[in-house]
Design goal:
By secondary structure, this protein is an all-alpha fold. The protein has helices at 8-41, 52-66, 79-105. Helix content is 70%, strand content 0%.
């Protein structure tokens, strides 16, 4: 199905999933930042672990400064497909980073 053939329900579902993906991404990134900070920054400095709100602000600042890019393969996907992919990335990438950080913290 091409982008022109999507229905209102598919577009609405895509927007809903996109909003959920943004919220989940913000919370997951803030959680990962606080954990990584506690594991790697706190032992070597006196800077306290940031709160979830501060970590969210740091994450938003970093995302703003690095920008957002889309891959060329996203051009043929519908809004719902893009949103589901974004939701999966917003969950799994922070979990993978957290897992790698935990493994590395065991050796520090």
């Amino acid at each position: 199905m091409s982008k022109a053939e999507t229905t209102f329900a598919e577009d609405f579902a895509g927007m809903t999933v996109a909003i959920v993906a943004i919220a989940v991404s913000c919370v997951m990134k803030a959680f990962v930042i606080t954990k990584l900070w506690a594991w790697f920054v706190l032992p070597f400095s006196s800077i306290p672990v940031p709160s979830m709100a501060m970590a969210l602000g740091l994450s938003l600042f970093a995302n703003y400064m690095t920008g957002i890019s889309s891959t060329p393969s996203d051009k043929d996907k519908t809004l719902l497909e893009k949103s589901c992919s974004s939701l999966a990335n917003s969950i799994f990438i922070p979990l993978i980073v957290l897992l790698i950080g935990f493994i590395v913290s065991c050796f520090v």
